# Entry
Amino acid sequence: MKFSGMVRPVDSVGRVVIPREIRNQLGVKNAEDCFEIYTEEDAIILKKYQPTCIFCDNLSDFVEYEGKFICKDCIEKLHKLSLTPEENQENKELSGD
# Structure
């Protein structure tokens, strides 16, 4: 962990201002970006939130469904699971597998 030399107070409702230099370094856009917050021993960790697939943690090529992100690869796998054995066989024959 790299010490920035910056110290900020906690206000009466528990807020801490993240210095502009750090926000710029991480490409944080005010009112758009969110942070994951977790603890590690005696530290509070803020990590810029990036939505990922709920199944495989893929960072790209996903769609949002009922507030959850699912990548297209996992959608395809789920689709295959929903098919009957006969439908799976037909798909294999059509694709040449």
In short: The CA atoms of residues 82 and 88 lie 9 Å apart. DSSP finds three helices and four strands in the chain. The first helix runs from residue 20 to 26.
